[in-house]
Amino acid sequence: MQDDLFSGWGIRTLGRREKAYNPIGYHLGTVWPHDNSIIAAGFVKHGYLEEACKLFSSLVDASTYFPNSRLPEAFAGFSREAFGVPVHYPVACHPQAWAAGAIPCMLQSLLGFVPDGCSRRLTVRPVLPRFVDWLEFRGLRVADARVDLVFTRQSDGRLWVNVENQEGELDVQVET
After folding, report:
1. For residue range 35-48, what is the model confidence (pLDDT) as tens digits?
2. Contact 138, 148 (CB under 8 A)
3. Which stretches of 32-144 are assigned E, i.e. beta strand?
4. Mapping DSSP to helix (H, G, I), strand (E, B) and coil, where does residue 55 land?
5. What is the distance between the alpha carbons of residues 137 and 163, in angstroms, rounded to a whole number?
6. Which stretches of 85-158 are assigned E, i.e. beta strand?
7. pLDDT tens-digit series, residues 66-102
8. Is the N end or the C end of the chain the one with fewer CB atoms within 10 Å?
9. Domain boundaries, the chain
């Protein structure tokens, strides 16, 4: 991810080398969490796992600078180096539903969750950024089945997936 599009907090709507670039222009250089979650899903789908992890990490980090860690609709596209904090976009909706879904959407992509209720199957292909050593989901539903999944980073850096408390018919397939 090059720095003309990647601000250090997320990917801008327009690269800073473009004539129309404006880091506080609504669609001319701002960072939209919702759009970044879709980009991360595309990165995962096409095998750019490191880039997807970097994007996830940057948005999680950015969220800590907003009240209650709730991401706004958009924030300014100024570089992380320029200000050290994500610059609030003056009229962004905050909180905003699309933005609230960005982190869960990115997690679904990074964990490779592919539920298939008709076949009673859940495929998991996990990848997570290095700062995540442990993550757990309780009561995850696929069709009428429920399962708990615990992701733990091992000393060699690999992720271990433990399937716990499964209720109902569900084939959990973990692919690494």
Report:
1. 999 999 999 999 99
2. yes
3. 114-116, 121-124, 134-142
4. helix
5. 10
6. 114-116, 121-124, 134-142, 145-153
7. 999 999 999 999 999 999 999 999 889 888 888 999 9
8. C
9. 1-110, 112-174
